[in-house]
Structure formats: C-alpha cells, structure tokens
Design goal:
Layout lengths: L1 E2 L10 H11 L8 E2 L5 H8 L4 E7 L7 H8 L9 E7 L9 H13 L3 E8 L13 H17 L4 H7 L7 H25 L14
Helix pairs in contact: 1-5
C-alpha cells in the first residue's frame, strides 16, 4: 500500500489510520509506504516488483495531493498481471465529491495498461485524525475489507457500495449544514487554527497577491 497523504505515515494522518486498519485484517499484512516520506524514483522502482499496489489518499476539494498526483504521472506502464487499486478518504459526507478523482484513477490504470482493482470512496472522515477513538467501527470495516481483499484479490463490492453512501446529500440536509456551519467553525476549525497560531491568517489569499 502507498499512502498519499502529505502528513506521511504518522498517527495523525487519516489515510495512514485507515491503511493500518486495512492491513490489520490480513493474515500476512502488506507494507505501507509513504509517497511523501520517501524518494520518488526509489519508491517507483521498488513497487515495480509487485503484482498489486493499492494507493490510499485524501481528497482535497475534487483533487488529490499534488505530490501524489505527480507520483501517479510518473508510473511506468504496467506489465502483464500488474494491477492498481485506490482508496479515497475525505471529510465530505457525500462520495460525489470524489467522483472526479475516481474517474481519473480508472482512466490512469487503463492508459498505463494495469488491471483495475476498483476505487473505494469513504467520506465523513474529517475528524478521523483528530478524534480516532470515535471511528472504531469504521476501522473494523476497513479491517474486514482488507481481509476480503487478501483472500480474493479485489475489493468486496458490498463494502464499496456501503462506504460510498451517501452519494449526494439532500437539499434539506445541505440547508441544515449551511445553517450550522458557523458553530462548527467556532468549535472546530477556529480552535485548530488558534492552536497552530494561524487564526489571524485565515482570510489570507496568497495566490491573489
């Protein structure tokens, strides 16, 4: 498995938490390597020997982290029997937010002549790295998914469908979320920004300067 989170393989990385849960259900757990924590060319050469490679990455507003994207663009063409699989985790509740990345992954695998193992999308993971103790049920489900994958060599479609729910939030729910957003900012994001001495810069627009 390759972790595409900019945080790398650390305990406060949501992608790493789910990657560890995924391999914990295996009888022979696979490695978890960090795209951001290792030399790109050496890692590309290392993974070329494996038949199946799974990428797990966060989704940041319809896209994946830049270095992870660059790594994928550097992948060589696949050899016979090699396959790629993908797992996306995001803070958005709806899996529709990750649809663009999902389509890209499928086309990338096809273009580079790899087998395609599928893409798992799981939303509502915004608090995973902050409050991992509240996500025990999700980690258990990922362990079950990993156990199935080890035995069958592909993702269980039942889990894929369940993780993807809801595909889109309803209009009443969107209205409710917009109404409660200021409270969430005060109790959540504002608190985090203040703890990291970044609250005063919250409205900065560096790319417009």
């Amino acid at each position: 498995m390759l972790n595409g989170s900019p945080k790398g393989n650390v305990q406060n990385s949501g992608s790493y938490i789910l990657a560890k849960a995924f391999v914990s259900g295996m009888k022979a757990p696979c490695e978890i390597r960090s795209i951001y924590g290792e030399d790109r060319q050496k890692l590309l050469q290392y993974i070329s020997q494996f038949e199946q490679v799974i990428f797990i990455t966060p989704n940041y507003i319809h896209s994946i982290p830049a270095r992870t994207l660059d790594f994928l663009y550097d992948l060589p063409k696949g050899s016979e029997g090699q396959s790629l699989g993908f797992i996306i985790q995001s803070g958005y509740p709806e899996s529709k937010e990750s649809e663009i990345s999902s389509r890209f992954f499928k086309r990338l695998a096809d273009r580079l002549q790899y087998g395609y193992l599928g893409t798992v999308v799981k939303g509502e993971c915004a608090g995973l790295a902050i409050m991992p103790e509240r996500f025990g049920k999700l980690e258990k489900k990922f362990a079950e998914l990993g156990a199935w994958y080890e035995e069958h060599g592909h993702f269980d479609e039942t889990y894929v469908r369940d993780f993807a729910k809801p595909y889109a939030i309803s209009k009443p729910m969107a209205l409710l979320l917009n109404m409660t957003n200021p409270i969430g900012n005060i109790l959540g994001w504002h608190k985090i920004m203040k703890a990291n001495d970044a609250y005063h810069s919250r409205r900065d627009m560096p790319y417009l300067d």
